[in-house]
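Module 6 notes. Inverse folding takes a fixed backbone as the condition and produces residue identities as the prediction. Think of it as a translation problem where the source language is geometry and the target language is the twenty amino acids. Below is one complete input and output pair. Work through it position by position during the lab.
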């Protein structure tokens, strides 16, 4: 066992939502559940009964179902067929009218905008009424380009109330990255802000929004959110205030359990970003379980997630609403320890943020706060981060979690019974039958293996967008072991039930806790006349470091000099995001491919991670073996 940094008190355990659920479950099932280990074991042994217990304990309101789930294997499993419900109805039913539902702040201070539950319900009703009058029907797509403000919360709730499908990009995305996602959905409505705040600056996005309007021909209505820049709504758009102008009843469209709620995008190594379609029912159950049993939220409390609308943490935080808990929305940079000041100022009990933000906070001095629980996601929290939180934030449970966009939730994390061990995740979450497998598909303990999920979860995507035969879905998660979800993380499942996540086992880039698709880089850089081809690779380094390298093959007659490097950096920063700027730009003689034309990202990542050439790739399947040998020599020289 690693260093134990914190252990729960008996009083904390007995006063938790988790313990209340276990007591209720013991009476229902007729046998005791002494701790979390007991309920996890039961939940994967009788998966259907566990999820029915979540439905009953949290009082999910839906029409009768035919059975708990279909017999089809993943990814074709369907949960609660025949049932109808509405996620937005559950998100808006618990909060007391006078309590604050949304605390809205931005960098630079100023008064917080506090929106009560009564005001939130009124705004959602008005916006949903406007959508209906605009012709939006169940299944239509409502897309957004919004920062982390109340407009996005109202928008997603209104879209869900109508039965429409929501998808949102953060305004730190450029036009190309946004269109590569939203154009796939053929939206009928676009809600777009004029800008956002970052590091003391107002970032004007009027030009990007104009390009989005041109590049989304299916959009019939554009809603202008005048937020960061003082200018009137452009011609041909509807001002945000008009959405909220009419007082109408709050109505919810009952939809099938698996009816699409939102599309979250995650980028693979080739092609367009993958659109993960999550169902209304699955997200309702996952949000109730995660925010209730694991975040421990109750009505009247509040959660603060430092996130943008382009990260799955934004969607995960919405689970707080299902319990009548408020959400703190902060729009801006975390520089100078701003996130801890926001947590203290708003009286948040639970905080959710990326590990990189904790690391960047090391020089700050957080003010006194009410936090009892700090949840860290995105990437592994380094040991120094655990100690910094304990020394500077207070007597809080540190909960390092892993899961994310794919399930809009978590596979593993802490619980009220688990001690906090430096560098480890507490354990597997109830209803998640996960394990570490070796290359032969054998479960391993205290050894590095592939993270796999062997039974379905309600919050797994019901489909991928534009993937009618599930070919891309199967290729993404089930190509190694049919019927078993391979997540693409290297993990160690320790004998005591805790876990260590070692990083991505595939070629997806994970920088500062945010996945970046290599195809986004190529789509942008291929437009530069001085560049013939590029290859981007991310490598995990010792001490929880990360190296993002960009290999560039200059076009004939061009040279990878300082001027071209600066052009590449500027292009990536302005057309994508600052996170896409590489740590190093390296000139390469060529980019090797498979015989079918795919860039050899995974083999080159293996080389840079120390794997010998004969173990990293089969030269017989490479179009240019000499080019791959160059990368092998480059990697050997760096090690």
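Target side of the pair, the amino acids:
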């Amino acid at each position: 066992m690693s260093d134990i940094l914190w252990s729960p008190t008996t009083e904390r355990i007995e006063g938790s939502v988790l313990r209340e659920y276990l007591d209720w479950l013991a009476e229902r099932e007729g046998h005791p559940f002494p701790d979390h280990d007991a309920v996890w074991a039961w939940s994967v042994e009788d998966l259907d009964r566990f999820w029915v217990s979540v439905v009953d304990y949290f009082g999910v309101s839906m029409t009768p179902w035919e059975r708990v789930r279909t017999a089809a294997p993943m990814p074709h499993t369907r949960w609660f067929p025949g049932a109808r419900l509405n996620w937005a109805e559950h998100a808006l039913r618990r909060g007391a009218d006078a309590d604050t539902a949304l605390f809205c702040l931005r960098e630079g201070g100023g008064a917080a905008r506090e929106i009560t539950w009564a005001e939130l319900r009124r705004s959602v009703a008005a916006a949903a009424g406007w959508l209906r009058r605009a012709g939006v029907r169940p299944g239509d797509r409502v897309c957004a380009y919004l920062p982390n403000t109340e407009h996005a919360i109202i928008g997603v709730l209104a879209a869900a109330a109508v039965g429409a499908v929501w998808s949102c990009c953060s305004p730190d995305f450029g036009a190309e990255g946004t269109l590569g996602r939203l154009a796939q959905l053929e939206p009928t409505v676009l809600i777009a802000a004029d800008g956002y705040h970052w590091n003391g600056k107002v970032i004007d996005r009027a030009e990007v929004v104009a390009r989005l309007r041109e590049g989304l021909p299916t959009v019939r209505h554009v809603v202008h959110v005048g937020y960061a820049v003082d200018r009137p709504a452009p011609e041909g758009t509807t001002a945000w205030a008009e959405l909220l102008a009419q007082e109408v009843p709050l109505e919810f469209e009952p939809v099938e359990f698996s009816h699409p709620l939102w599309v979250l995008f995650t980028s693979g190594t080739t092609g367009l970003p993958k659109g993960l379609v999550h169902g209304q029912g699955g997200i309702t159950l996952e949000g109730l379980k995660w925010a209730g049993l694991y975040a421990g939220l109750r009505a009247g409390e509040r959660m603060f997630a430092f996130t943008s609308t382009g990260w799955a943490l934004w969607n995960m935080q919405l689970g707080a609403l299902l319990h009548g808990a408020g959400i703190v929305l902060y729009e801006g940079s975390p520089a100078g320890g701003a996130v801890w000041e926001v947590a203290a100022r708003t009286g948040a009990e639970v905080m959710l943020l990326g590990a990189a933000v904790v690391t960047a906070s090391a020089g700050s001095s957080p003010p006194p706060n009410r936090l009892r629980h700090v949840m860290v996601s995105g990437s592994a929290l380094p040991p120094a981060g655990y100690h910094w939180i304990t020394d500077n934030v207070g007597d809080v449970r540190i909960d390092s979690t892993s899961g994310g966009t794919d399930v809009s939730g978590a596979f593993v994390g802490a619980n009220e019974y688990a001690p906090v061990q430096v560098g480890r995740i507490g354990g597997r979450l109830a209803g998640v039958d996960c394990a570490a497998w070796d290359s032969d598909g054998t479960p391993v303990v205290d050894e590095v293996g592939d993270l796999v999920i062997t039974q379905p979860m309600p919050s797994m995507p019901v489909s991928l967008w534009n993937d009618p035969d599930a070919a891309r879905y199967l290729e993404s998660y089930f190509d190694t072991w049919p019927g078993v979800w391979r997540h693409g993380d290297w993990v160690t499942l320790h004998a005591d039930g805790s876990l260590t996540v070692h990083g991505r086992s595939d070629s997806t880039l994970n920088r500062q806790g945010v996945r970046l698709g290599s195809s986004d880089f190529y789509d942008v850089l291929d437009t530069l006349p001085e560049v013939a081809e590029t290859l981007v690779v991310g490598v995990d380094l010792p001490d929880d470091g990360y190296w993002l390298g960009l290999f560039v093959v200059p076009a004939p007659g061009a040279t990878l000099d300082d001027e071209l490097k600066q052009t590449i950096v500027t292009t990536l920063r302005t057309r994508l995001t600052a996170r896409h700027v590489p740590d190093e730009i390296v000139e390469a003689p060529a980019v090797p491919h498979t015989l079918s034309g795919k860039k050899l990202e995974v083999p080159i990542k293996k080389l840079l991670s120390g794997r010998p050439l004969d173990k990293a790739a089969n030269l017989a399947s490479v179009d240019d073996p000499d080019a791959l040998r160059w990368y092998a020599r480059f990697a050997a020289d760096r090690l």
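Reference fact for the lab report: The chain has a mean pLDDT of 92.
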